Amino acid sequence: MSRARSPRRPRLIVPVPLGLAPGLALGLALAGCGSVPSAGPAPVSTATALPAPTTATAPPTVAATPSGTPSGKPSVTSSASASARPSARVSTRPSSTAGSGGATSHPVIVIDPGHSGRSIRSRTVNGLLDVDYPNQPEMREVFDVSSCVAAGLRSDGYRVLLTKAHESSSVSLTERARIADRAHAALAISVHDDHSQGPTFQAVYSQLGLTVDGRHHAMWRGRGSHRTVFDQPSVARASDRAARLIARARSRAEGRPVRLAEENFAGRPPLEPGNLALVQLLTHRPWVYNELGARAGGSTTSELTVAQETAYAQGLLDGAEAAVPNGDRSPATRASLGRCLAARR
Ligand SMILES: [Zn+2]
After folding, report:
1. Per the record, which residues fall in region Disordered (predicted)?
2. Which residues in the chain come in under a pLDDT of 70?
3. Can you tell me whether residue 201 is helix, strand or coil?
4. How many angstroms separate the CA atoms of 308 and 195, rounded?
5. Fold annotation for 89-343
6. Rounded distance, CA 340 to CA 151, Å?
7. Per-residue confidence (pLDDT) for residue 65, from 0 to 100
8. Which ipTM value was assigned to this complex?
């Protein structure tokens, strides 16, 4: 296995004074990754697999929003109006394409390793701030895990795209979402870990969110006229089904509970407030966002062990294949994960 990055080396953690180096300050402020869950853990219950992949599908299209939307390529449309709480909606027609991934025997899975090599910020078409930043040691770890899960999926007959070519690549969240959309991915999974959180924090986030009093609520980001609601029910349901399967597989592989949870971006500027990862909001494909509590003892900088990375990779591989079955799950693929991750050190 070729190595996509330089060998790991001891890292110095240097305090950065506030007001200096905006990119660094941003990185520090966000070092907790994206992992402030809200609400309690939800039980991981029996779930069904995503719809079986079908033959090539048409691109997702945009359904009418409250203000009406031209059909055509996926877009985020604003419905800024005189309403008291204007909301844009990311919307597709209720789609039979959710969960389909192209050719029957080779479904597409997109793997999204968290973070970018440099701090980047732009605006989505709807005016939401699209922010990404480096975060080590997480960025190295999740790129390795993602690369080895990708290798495993490919050896089991899947077509796999990574949203980053290299660990140090900088790719906006908008572009990451587009990669999955263009590929008509059956499933996309974001891979993160969080060194500010201990091992009891293991989370999986879907585009459906959690139920409150038996009901689902809006999944959204942004404030004022930029407030954007995820309004793709069939995609959200497919994401929820996949999230449950991935949570179960990760629980088994990691030997500890991995729970469905919901994010809370309130009070974390420059991140937009809301409860859904931006990449999940912007896409038209089922997307599951994973976090792994990675703190070791009192250290927030100790790297994951190969065994920990392997367990994470195993759960992601098993969960993705359960969510998008293609009838070919090789034990050899699982055995190779540890070798793959060890080789990347
Ligand atoms: Zn992260």
Report:
1. 50-117
2. 1-104
3. coil
4. 13
5. Aminopeptidase (3.40.630)
6. 9
7. 31
8. 0.99
